[in-house]
Amino acid sequence: MAFSLHSHSGEFCPGHAKDNLEDVILIAIARGMKSFALTEHMPRESEEDLYPEEIAAGHTIALLPPRHTLYLQTATTLRAKYADKIHILIGFEGEWIRSSYGPFIQEYASDPRIDFFIGSVHHVHGIPIDYDAATYAQAVEKAGSEEKLFEDYYDSQHEMLRALKPRVVGHFDLIRLLAKEPDADLKTYGGGRVWEKAIRNLEIVKEQGALLEVNSAGLRKGLKEPYPGKSVCEVWKEMGGKFTLSDDSHGIAQVGTNYVRMLDYLDGLGVEEVWTLEKLEGKELVEKKVTLKEVRETFKA
Q: Which reaction is catalysed here (predicted)?
């Protein structure tokens, strides 16, 4: 039973992603996905929080809430339309940029059409850390050093986890994407201080009962391992934590990209089962265990 708990479309994340939401769902069906979560990026609260491509396209903060409302309407319609072919979850990806985003995210999460949201950190000191080398360099300069930026990232993630208790934690070690040594072992990075903060955060994720996302987009973006890297996954497995899967697709070309490599990666770590979320009509959102064997059986590479 192949599934993904993290995706985007160009219809509701224009410039950031590609293609209409319905086309993304149709490709997910064609790739053998039996469950697929729609998690467009949430609105933001300040013009300074827009991404460079949004600014270049002339977008404003005022455009985002009505677009989000239209997204929820469209997603609800599509879920009903394709209910006999795929189980669709409706959510969004949280944008923890500063502490004021706590109530902002909780307000959007309270909409009855939302099944869950992904707890993510894409910014440190208000600067995107996964957009491009230039903006990453600005974040390093603001932090004072790359090592300090990593520490600040995990401190921001810690604040997000404490405030929001997300059901799914997205790309736990996203901070390494544009680093000088993106494939370095986090366990030995920065003399151990970064690793201590990462472990602290994993303990909170476990305490809160959240799912830790294994995200194949890291492979698509040139990393040797998905998010999170091997050391993080090993510790999470030792903790008895639950993994979930995502392609973090940004359009039809990326649905299921590198899924086989990601499954092989988990096999190599001795992981035999992962978890997805399920929301049946009139029922509460629940976790559902799926073996890697079952994921492979329906996925069409």
A: L-histidinol phosphate + H2O = L-histidinol + phosphate
